[in-house]
Design brief:
Elements: H1 3-36, H2 43-83
Helix pairs in contact: 1-2
GO molecular function: transmembrane transporter binding
GO cellular component, one term: Golgi apparatus
Length: 84
């Protein structure tokens, strides 16, 4: 594999990682806003909000793990093809 191809593959990988970081930052901002508005909630409304936030955290974590695994598989496939 030429250096140009390797460079291009690494640029794509970096771009994917930057997208993940950007998504995580957006999720954190969203959760901060949700939490900031929760001070006035009482009882079951407060519990419902926390359950929703926990569900969103778990969903985002699951998506991040899947994307990381897919990214590694793609990167490993590219690396393997480069070594041939």
């Amino acid at each position: 594999m030429s250096l140009k191809n390797e460079n291009e593959n690494l640029r794509k990988y970096i771009s994917a990682l930057q997208n993940e970081v950007y998504g995580a930052r957006l999720a954190a901002k969203y959760l901060d806003k949700e939490l900031a508005g929760s001070h006035e909630l009482l009882g079951s409304e407060h519990d419902r909000l926390w359950e929703q936030i926990e569900a969103e955290i778990h969903l985002h974590r699951h998506k991040t793990v899947i994307r990381a695994c897919q990214g590694r598989q793609n990167f490993n496939a590219l690396s393997h093809a480069a070594s041939k």
